[in-house]
Records
---
Amino acid sequence: IIGKLTEKIPWLRTKDSLSIPNDLEVEGTELHFNDRNELDYLVFRVTEREGTREYQGYRAVRLLQLRYISLEARRDAGLLQKMRTVLRGLYGAQVDLVYLAAGVFKNPNVGIVQCYGVAAFSPKKDEAIQRSLRDLSALRAGLVGAYRQIRLEPLSTEVAQWLARALEQMPYAIVAVGHPDPRENARGGDSSMRDPLVSGSQGAQQYSIQQNELLFRGMSSLEEEFLLMLLTNHVRLEDITRMLAGMLEDTSVYASRQLGTRAASFGISLPAILTGGLAENASRSYGTNHSSGVTQGEAATDGVANSEGQAHTTGHASTRGWAHTVGISETDTIGSSSTVGTAVSQGTAHTEGTAVTDGTSHSDSSGVANSHTDSSSYGVNGGVGGSIAPAGVGLSANVGGNANWGSADGVVVSSGSSDSSMHSVTHSQADTVSQSTTQSQSNTTSQSHSTTQSEAWTTSGAETDSVADTTSTSTTQSHADTKSTARSETDGVGLGQSIGRGISAGMSVGVAPSFSLSNAYQWQDDPYILLTDIMRTQRKLLDIASREGAFYTDLYALATSEQGIQAMMGLIPEAFHGTEDVVAGVQTRALTDPEQAYIGLHARAFTPSTRIETIPEAMSGYTDSTLLTMLQVAAYTAPGMFEQGSALTTQEETPAFAFYPDIPGNITLARQWSSETGLLTDTFLKLSPDRHFHTAFVGDTGFGKSIAAERLAYETTRFWHYRTIVLDFGQGWRKALNWPGMGTKGSEDSLGHVDIRQLYPGSPRPLRWNILQVPKRIEPGRYRSMVAELFANAGRMGARQLGFMRRALTELYYEAGILTGDPKLQNGPLGHLQDEQEVELIRYERQSLGEDLDDLHPGTLLESLSPSELQVLAVYRSRKLDVSKWVDRLRTYKEKLERDQVSRTSLEGVLLRLEQFSEGHMAKQYGSSASGTGVEDLGLMGNADNPWGVIVIEGGAEMDEYSKAALLSLLASILYSDAVTRRRETLAGKHFPPMQIFFEEANKVLTGVSGGAASDQGSGDSGNPVSHLFQTMWRDGRKYNVFLHLMAQTVSELPSGILSSCANVFVFQTKDPKDRDLILPHLGRSEKGLVNTEYKRYLARIPRTYAIAKLGYSDDVFWLEPVLVRPMIIRSNEPSDLEITQELGAVSLERTASDILATNRSH
């Protein structure tokens, strides 16, 4: 039986040894690298032979290594099906896939490297290179389309060199043939798998859910270097169809031999008969016949037929129409006029004049026109009909309807800007005597021609519904009467005579013995049954291949040692062998030394073997190739979920974020990242003025907050002409000096719009600012409280320390006559104008307002002055104050409280923080000065009619954190309060640009810093009234065209309500759990429960310079989803101190004559 089975199944017959053809010559090899030292492509100059044909040309190979596939792929049961779709696409694009899996464990020690690539052959080198590039694009697109966020990168130089060495030096090779069994299960584990030895059911007979991972794990444990290479060549569908037709014919022959019937029978019969006869007879006859008959018949027939019918018909028709209409109209106009006139004039004139004219104008215009047209029409029709006829009655009814609609949209955006200036001086003197007689006649003929073109896009649709009901009734009646009469007569005469003779005799003898024997049975041929099953499996695979295509597939395995190649011989069947829908399972074929050299040569050139298979009726015509379906090839080439290697497989995919390709706006902030492809795109995140709001840039240090903030500051300042104040806690913003389009050489008005000032002592451009001088637009009492509260907040001081500071400032302000609106002061010795300087100050104020200048003299009572005049006087008198006086007054408090140890301790904490402002360079920089800077005008640069610009206030590293926090918070409060007052002034016609303030290290500026000095406050900013001050700024700032932007590392330490007031936010990597809980609701994601946890985890692994951006200020919910972006960095050099002073000039702290005089007068 075994012999017969071997003879009937072709691939079990004993095979002759296979010859090694001379089918490949490699004449040259080139490796090309790109500018990043990555492998670009390989080129082989080859001569290939197959049969009697020879092909000379170039084979170009391009490879991409798998660098990342998401963790979700481990749980994806459709992993192989996705690869199947990729292969189906490659087959349609006629791309030959190359798959490599390499174990790189020595020089360098990388682990498993999985590569996907293409091979292209052409007689011309350039054509082969270009074709391989096109094919690689198809491969990359297919893999990215199937596996979300997969990352493929070119091979590094080290891996490329290892690959070249492995192909040249690995001496051991084997070939794998047969059909792999695709295991379509999730690769992350399945707790429902059962032991097939226990359950015994077919459903439990499962294989390991992993495939190539088994091979990778086994070779990695041995640290044996290897190279697994898979080469595919697509087979034409017509060839597959011919294979299928031949297979069907062969299968039917074997199928007809599976069953049959056998039978046997026997019988005998011997009959014999003999007959004879003789007879004689005579006869005569005569006959007469007469007949007569009458027949009458009568019949009556009545018939009735009744028929009824009913039909119901419903009809629906949908019509869509699209029309593009172009219209042209021409208009001709001809006009004619005739004018006749006569004028006589006489005159004498003497004229002298001088005119000086100066004029400047600037106009901006912009317009947006939108049009939208909707049209619709509806109709309903119906009808009823009936008929009456002799044969029946009919009734019919129908109802119909139609609807048409159309829409058209249009938008026109226009903008314009013009600047003009004029200066003229004219002197004239003239004596004129004139007499003139003028006659005029004019004939005017005008003709105009206009041509109008119009174009319209129209979309229309119609919906028609009809219903018909038909009822018919038919009744038929019939009646017939029939009468018939028939008469017949017949006469006949007959005469006949007959004579005959006959003799008859007979004999009959018969013998008929019978015997029957039969035997029938049914037979079947099991070898033919088995052979038919195998061939039907082949037919099934060919049937699948005839619908989606198939590849001739070569699978080569190379190793550096005998142990490695022996391990591969066991691991390949273990990983890929199976019995489901396979004809021949995966088998590894040991090779002789000449065969190993032959396979090694083809592997080095990425060229498939052409050895012919000598077994008849096999699926493949080649020894080392197997015809595989898409799913079978996918079993080999699906990405392996194996972490020890160059591919990252344990990281979950990036969560889904919105993607807005048409976001409105005229400034550009960042580039959007696509969560579908996992790639950074060239689609920009834009912002329009109507969506600009307070913005928070939050995240851990070093991840790009300043990059995003700088971009926002640059774009809004340059293109929207905002007034931008940057409170730089360090000195990272000074590169603004080199921002394009902002300096004197690049700005549109050729004026400088950048300034840099420093807070730290010894700086090249110090901000010379008397911090006790009352600002122009802030009431003195309010400013006194503001200074005390902010300086206390900067050091996180308590209520007792705040009380001492405020009390000392109140006394100083009262003694200097600064609280000009206080009734107590007005009734005291400083309750009137002290000297001519104060009189001139008030007179100038009244003159600027156009008021009466009389009744002003030294001694004029303050209660007679207006609030604005009192404010001007308070600003003037506060110039004499100095921080050192504040410190001295606090020292006197301490000396008087010898027995109150608690108060002394509080005062010591205050003095330790404030004393530095009264010493050294800081005493000069922040003390009294007639030439100090009015901080309320910072950032107003350029043309006085249209001031704008950016000023950077650097804190620097030389200054302690308390001083920077106190000064920057006070500066921000002054600017905000000043902007609130300016907003009212704009209602009177004045122009002030919108202002925005950027807070670097906002946590420290807003909540203060901890120091070694004593503080009587518990912790943080709980109960601190200053937090409410900042909340008011963030809550109401936009009403006054003030935008506040914070940069913070720890969101949870910000005063409550600040983050929620920032409608726009850029979130960078944030790892603190409390911070992430505060950020998620801001992004519209839940921070509780089990939902949206992927977003919470992603916050802790956002890449550097990437951010989640949400522009949340919009009246359309469509635009409110967060977007993953990469802010665009401004490429500019950071200037040195010398470059800053060369560009902007140095600022000296030396006392001027006016400073000395002011100091002497104060004493």
Note: Residues 10-186+208-246+533-637 form one domain.
---
Amino acid sequence: MWRPRNSASPNRAREMSARAVQHSRPPMALVAGLAAAAALLSPQQSSRPDYAQQPLVSERLYQRVRFEADGTGRRDLRVRVRVQTEGGVQALGEITYDYNSAEETLEIDSVLVHKVGGTTVAAGPDAVQDVTAPVARLAPVYSDLRNKILTVPSLRPGDTLELHAVWLRRTPLSPGHFWYQEDFTTDGVVLDERLELDVPRGSYVKVKSAPGIEPQVSDSGDRRVYRWKHANLEVPSETARRRRAAEDPWIPRVHSVQVSTFRSWEDVGRWYGDLAREREAVGPEIRAKAQDLVRDRRTLRDTLEALYDFVSKDFRYVSLSFGVGRYQPHAAKDVLANQYGDCKDKHTLLASLLAAVHVRAFPALISSEAEIDRDVPSPAQFDHVISVIPAGDDLIWLDATPGVSPFGFLLYGLRNKQALVVSADAAPQLRLTPREPPFPTQLEVDVTGQLTDLGTLRVAVRHVVRGDAEVLLRLGFRAAPAAQWTSFGAALASAEGLYGDVTDVQPGNPTATRQPFEVAFQLVKAGYVTWSGKRARVPAPLPTLDLPRDTSDTAGLHASLPDQDYTARLRLVLPASVTARTPVPVALTRPYGEYHSSYSVHGDTMLAERALHLTGRILSGTGQRDLTAFVRVIREDEGQEIALERATSGADSTAPASATADELHSSALAALNNGDARTALRLFRRVVDLDPRHQWAWNNLGRAYLRLGMLDSAIVAFKRQADINPYDQYAYNNLGLAFWRQRKYGEARDAFQQQLKVSPLDRYAHANLGRMYAEQHRDSAAVTELGQAISISADDPQLHVDLGKAYLSVGQPDKAQREFDRAIELAPIPVMWNNVAYAYAVQGVNLARAEQYARSAVDATAASARNVTLDHVGLKDAAAVSSLGAFWDTLGWVYFREGNSLEAERYVRAAWLLNLNGEVGDHLAQIEERLGRKDDAARTYALALAARRPLPDTRAHLAKLLGGDRQIDAMVERARSELVQLRSVPLGTTLREDLQGTVTLLFGSGPKVEQITFAPGSDRLRVLDGALRAARYPLELPDSNPVKVLRRGVVTCSSDKGRCVIVLDEPGLLATEDVAR
């Protein structure tokens, strides 16, 4: 009857209330929890769950589904949802339900909003619009698909939405049959979820529940009723989601409840065959078109490919899952005339064209998302239709849906899957699709170019792709206009770790699928080599595989490896004055694959090649250590650097020859702290040459090596430090860090434990040991060590976060939540959520959780300032402005680490314009650099160095970008005046008087000035009210969240020119004692 649908479903309220917000950047904020509601479910629990950070809490989700023997029926949906944040308001402010007007009706007969103050607002009839579904507007043959759009009135955080909707099926999908499936909520908070299924007692009905979800069954007269109860009181952590997804990107879904009246898969197949077969009739239009397409084709293969290409490439796909709309496809002649169709329509046209040339083709029903549950024969298990052509004892499998798939190729989600082949010659049966593609898959990347004397990298990059990635690239370039190819090529380069300015993107023909797909582009990276002296080290400019940094998370390492053969080649011409020392070649051979790399220099040209060949899908039983080591070695090989040396060095590359060891050490330490590890390395080497037993130099030399990833050299340096002073307070801890990065866990453990012998209360050693154990999934040991670190430093909130993560790994979510709560308890304000989020972002882990925390901080701060007016403004409100900028920066930095640079730029730019903070400026510059905007990045780095609280690393970032630091001081000096200009807003020629005074501005959405106040003694400036409101301020709001922003500024007018200008204060300097009406 009603099949759960992908994007438009009668379950929409349930999905919106409990799931949808969780799937993509959930907006969250801290508001009052629902402890009372949770207590009703668990009255004997002394510790009540806290759902304060959830945007929505579904208090009640009731569904009653009734079927009649003829296949008609009714569905009642009753929902009661507590809205807790602005994100929740946005999710439920407008709800869309779909229905098929040819077969069913939909009535939304009650919509109530229970306000926080106790009043209730009822939605009127005009709150519901009945409109044509978007797909029907694009493809009129699907005009039966309708949407009812509910606009929920007066919904605000803290309100409760209650609604009732009824779907009434008048026409059965299959007379005498019905089917249904339901998935209870698992990734959102639902306090009380119930499903009641009412079916005819005399009908055969197969009902299957997922393990642990058993119904109560009762009979009454000629009816049988099944009742399920469910609650979900915890939202899975990001770690749990990541591990589950890493096991395989196509996780088989186990439905909570499945219902079907079909007794066998053969019955399902015959039902669909009866619906589809008549639509494949060969009429004169079809016959004529088929004959035209196969004219001059000399082989059967050529004939098949010609007809397949026509349907695949020339007919627009309308994205409807199998079962959305009608199950019966449109007639082949209509599909031919319309030139579009869904998956079953495209198969129908292909089968009809093939029949016209006497070739049989049959539909195959398949699921792209889940494995088929053979116990429950049901159309609900399928979401796609592909084609099957008998070829002797074999089958040719075709999928014309993507439009750019090579002949006989199935995407990964369709391979090695059970499909119901509906043959006209034999009984329908489940058949297994091919495990492997019909041709060898490959990814070849050739990088050819030169390194200039100034350190600029100029290369041509060429990709040759066959397989799943090929189809994705073909789809992307086919959809993108030529004007967007540069952006598409830049995104491709960035995803592969090739950063720079991308131009001249030249893709192959996206529809020429008989050969591998090719795409080429030019890449220029200024400052690829930054010379601090005669020597420099750079990575080979080759694409990198997307391998996990944390190789201890082995649950899905096999899924992270590519399915295709991978080869990357480099041919790089070096400047005449530069010589190169190549990295060490690597050769790995395992039963499941091989990896080889080679590096060489011939004259002025460096050659490099990396190749990975997998003999088949890696089995989950592959030894953990073996697979971990295999991936680790590949990643470490990708991290090897080319050692370059030039004949002459820059003027700033050496320190005075007369400098003492201590002077050199001070300079080196400053360089290290400023992020210039290469200069620090050179200077520390000079220190140990002058004084081999310097009391600190070997340790700091090791730190420089550690920064540069030269782990073997770092280990030698730390061991030398320990030899000089066996009781050094840092050496063994740093030695442990170096071994840890090499994934030499035994040696790392010994070093950390030796540090603890030297200093038993060293919280850093305990913490590092605990974090390393967590990486190894020695979670119980991690809990022990992190617990000891907290015992030493109980008020360190980050340690509580780390311990919380370890508790999640050992399956103790309650303890984990207590640790997270403790972290926030130590600083129970949005700043703590921000700090936790930023820590995650810096580490590049748990980014979804980081996004939630960052969004919580943003939403809560915006909400707290929503009702601010200048009549009642306090210090807290003023401080929130500066905090909001920091929180925007954190959220943007999370997006940056997630690879979403455009979203990152929106938030970080807004934060920069608000706060002009050095750290934020550094973030913005890094984002601009990743986006390939070198000039913008250089300017922003200089501004960041001139701004408040610049990061130590910013100067090094700019020096690397520019290829040296000789210009930096001048750039920073110019930037200081530019910063003042950024805060200066001209008001026009308005007053010919010498006046100066302070004003405070309140900005709202837009942003626009909503209110102005003038400090005592500034009354004469009130005539500038209009000019102040009309001026254009350096302020951006990154999203649609309602927010209020306070800014104070000094207005100055001159009598000789009659011009006025306001110079805005930095937000942190805003004071309230001067604010007056």
Note: The first helix runs from residue 12 to 23.
---
Amino acid sequence: MGEGAGAGFAGDPARALLRIRDQQGRLCGLGFVADRHGTVVTAHEAVAGVPRLVLHTPGGQSRVLGPESVDLLPGHGLALLRTAAVGGLPGPALPIGRTAVTGPVAVPHQRWEDGAPALARGGPIGRERGRCGDGALVRTVPGVLVLDLPVTPPAGSPVLDPETGAVLAVVAPRVRAVAGPGVAAVPLAAVPGPEDSPLGRLLARNGADAPAFGRALNLGGALRLTGAQLEAAAAGPGRIAALAADRVDRPDGLSGEEPQDVLTVLLGESGSGRSTELAALAVRRAGAAQPLPTLWLRGADLAAGDRTLGDPLRRRLALAAREFGVPEVDPGELAALCANAGRPLLVVLDGLEEAPLALSARWLTAGLEWLRAHRARALVACRPDGWEQLGPWRSTARALWLGPLTDDAAARAGRRYGLPGTFLAPAERGHPLALRLAGELRGAGVHGPVGSRAELFDGWLDLACLTVARRVARTPGGPRRHRRGGPAAAGEDARQVRRLAAVAAGRLHEAARLMLGAGDGALPAADFARLFPDAGGWARAVREERLLVPAGAGYRAGHEEWGEWLQSLHLDLDAALRLLLEEPGMPEVPEVPDGPEEGGAAGVGADGADPDGAGAVGGAVGAGGGAGRAPGSGGTLRTPAAGASGGAERWTRADAVPTAAAPASAAPASADPASAVLASAVPRAVGEVRGGVGRGRVGVVAGALRRVGRVRGAAVLDGWLRRVRAALERAERGGEADWWAARLLVAGIAASPEPSAHRELLELLAERAGRDERFGPAFWTGLPLPVAERVALLGRLAGDPGRAEVARTAAAELLTADPRGVLPLLCAWYGRTSGGAERAGNAEETGNAEETGNAERTGNAGETGNAKEAERAERAAALADELLYEHRALALDELTEALVATAHPRADALLGRLAEREPSALCRAVDRWSHDPRPERHVAAAVHALRTAPHAGGSGAQLLRLAARTLLAREDEPALHGAALALLVRDPAGRAEHLPAVLAGYRAGDPFLTAEVLAGLLAEHPAPVLAAVRERLRVPGARAGEGLRVLAGAADPAVARSGLLLAAELLREDPERAEEVARHLDAALDAGWDGRPLLDAVLAAGPAVRARFAPVLAAPGGGREELLDALLAAERDGRVLAAVVEALAARHAGHPERRVRELLLLVAERWPGADAALVRCAGRWAGFARLLASWPEDAPPPPLGPRLARLRALAASGRDPQYAAAEAERQVDRPGGRLTGHTKGVPVPGQGRAHGTL
């Protein structure tokens, strides 16, 4: 049997077997423990009929069991003894196998004669049906095994699989129904029966509690294997547990329930804590009350030739099995086994960007099918850029995003590391890796503060190199390792440690250069062994300090973001951009086969033969000579030659650049340094198209851009970014250059030391919003600009219809995050200045001849440009309206203050809308403004109080009255007293007190005391109000309509009659007031009042006045028939009659047809022009045309006239009456005579198809 799989039990049966005796000491049989609760399995015949049992353990203990502790299973020939593990387990649990007996078996037992342990070996000779029990309790036992054994062991002896040590059956000699050769045994493997039976539950517990391997693999064995793989994963034993211990609770972390989806993707930037979250989840699963299986992979574990996810899992499981000393297991079998046990396997795949091969869509699809087929789940962690490259996984995966730590989580992490609040800059306090490294620096005695992440990485590198040097300086017999940051060991040579620290720094920088030249970004194992040999303790020191950790076939930086920073110090940025952006003159990248090419770097490095390497790479340390300083830090940053693209600069190291060997199938290596430090002809990670630089290296290039900004300033960085933008405009969408340009632009702007310096570049990028999702809302909301500048940029976007939605989404996010700060900035969109003038000014300031020339060429189109800018400003203002109104609930009081401070018509209009929908907020605002010392706020209080009053009630109305009294008390602002009085007279309780002042103000023409104010007083005080109106209308220039509108809503007939008499008086005095008087008459008639008091004045007026009243009297309803008849009784003027005809035609549907025909006949008799007017009106109103065309035969004859006759004739022939009217008018009025021979006309649809107007 395999070691560790049960061989120990077969070799020493006494360790596993329990003796079962009766109270007289007679041996009844044997048994074995099957679970952690101490349940003992034995044969039914060993315990049946024995009232009390004595159980003897291998350790010499004995336990007495009564009938209540015995479960008899006669249908299986078995019995279960429940010891409840009192006093500890009776013995070690044996695993129960899952397969039937088909080959050799081993039966450990005790000899009858002397009780000595023995082992009987044999094999199966057949199967038969047995029986168990006595008398009426006899049960049939199917599938009884007959074994060929040299002796007959006691009942209850376990039958083991010699290879795996798993129990397959239990010896039961008397279960045979018919005597014969061989020994009977009842099987345990694949016992039929319900899972909820006592035996089914025991088998489930045994599978979890007693691990078995090989072909007997069970859940316990699977958990042991996955646990062993988890312990050895990543960078050696303990790394998973150490990462998990470093986790801090965070809202966006994996602190909830287990992943339930087939595929979950955790996205986060480098250093955001992705691996920590995965490790915490894995440790939590492994340490649960019911442990859950987890397998850990990282991208570097994938290899060329892997067809599915099961291939790398098989390799990792095989390694764990060899270390554990058990047979290898198929990952699919393990996953299915775990799923059957109700504990699905979770595959954790960290660092997908590290994959050294191209993960094609076929591979991704196969991996997803593997998970589904074996009912497993996967949790993948990668950078946000990796999400778009997941291909078939994206439609299935559930995406989780890790952002910066919340303030609370960051504070808790800072307290854990003992960091004071000012140790890190505000921008770094929510970054998990920054907090962790800062904690190590603090523990080493660094008191801070640390200004930037680059400074933090540099300091941590110094500390790590110093610790490595101390490790290397110790001899094998020296003092024990002291904790990091503690006092130096006695006898430590400080000079030697400093020298070794410098050597460690040089070797690490050399490793970074070699990693740049590697296709997958890893340091080959051979180069690691050369730089950090085992001799002298270099390799062990570097590994234990987690500077470089094993990953796949090579080594990678222990902290991904720190490693990218270290590599970025050595990147030739100019050459890298020419390669990545496919700038003109750059050679094409050759294609290479699948899989990474093995290629070392033939650069300068340490001599592995030197125990401490002091003389080998000491020259790699920079001019400062301190540990952790970048090689070549004494070098210069060279500015570009004249005319270089984008005004960018190129910086290089002062020392030599290692040259990466080109693949055999590739073109010869370029002499350009970029080709050496950033390998190009390698397969990309995460399913990308072959050729070019892997997209997973974007962090290194972005780090080089950050260094430019940090060292040379934002102005120089802007030149590089403009160069990248030029490549973005030039590149084909979806190509490699397009991808790199977009990512580098986003990263470069985000890392700029002065983002405001890129305002012009951002305005150029704004043109891509709406058509390029990479510059969508997330880009604009995440800009490291002050909020005011971000909102101003969004205002420019809002003016373009194609980009307005981007601006809306981004502005809404900013508004939700900080409503008080963003509200005034959005209000500024109302008065946004013209962007064209601003750009022209920029052109003049910079002296850009091209822009100035463009401005001159477009000078002739100035008016068009101004119109377009006005449209853009109007669209931005409209969007601001929508945003402010939709999100008004975020901060209503702050919104009202921002709007009133804007002093823009749109802001006033929005305040008006808020008065209707949010009157309580406007009431509070009016109260505040009335007490504000600024006069303009008093005006706002007066205006918006009147707007809000109709919608306010309760406490809001009380606030308005208090504000009105405050305004009324300001003697130095009499212009606002009218508004205060208009508010106060709305209150019935105070109306009488303020009525005289209100009427006096109305008579004086106060703009706040309008007709609506007096109309509300008319019912209670008709006489003084009527007198005030009459007096006001006597003032020269007074508008009659305003005064009459006061009287239009009168409820008293006497007041209404007085109003009509006043209107008649006004009409006699000034006929030019006919329009306003006619409107008053129309309102009075609609209200049901008698209009005769005004009729005499109308009839006595001139034709122009009567024509104005004709449409009012010809309208249907309201007792107008009598008044119209009185008007037409003696009317002969064509203007008046034409107005009557048009009014009847327009509103003919409101009159009975008979009444319309009578009136038309009356008009036609008195007016020769009626024929033309009738046909013209028929052409305008289809219903009126049909009325004329379908004149009843029993009615008086229709009016005479050539046009009307032609209309009727055409309609009778099938023409649409309205079209016939137009045709009749054209034919009759055509020059040359009426009804000429040219009668065909244009085709007109028949009546049944009529629609619309001409």
Note: The radius of gyration is 48 Å.
